[in-house]
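Figure 3 (text version): structure tokens given as input.
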């Protein structure tokens, strides 16, 4: 299993704000793990990308 921190590149401080963890399991599954205080949520990268694409699609239809 491999885990990488994803940080905000636009953060003004020397230490960039951590957004989430990217995790790739031994079987190749890609996950994003979000933490807020004591709550930890994990989502499949594919599911996250599908949600982003749906949000983009919805924003284009509401603009026109």
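Below: residues designed for each position.
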């Amino acid at each position: 299993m491999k885990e990488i921190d994803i940080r905000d590149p636009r953060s003004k401080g020397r230490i960039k704000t951590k957004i989430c963890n990217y995790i790739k399991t031994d079987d190749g599954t890609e996950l994003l793990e979000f933490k807020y205080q004591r709550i930890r949520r994990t989502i499949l990268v594919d599911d996250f990308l599908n949600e982003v694409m749906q949000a983009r699609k919805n924003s284009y239809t509401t603009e026109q």
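The mean pLDDT is 89.
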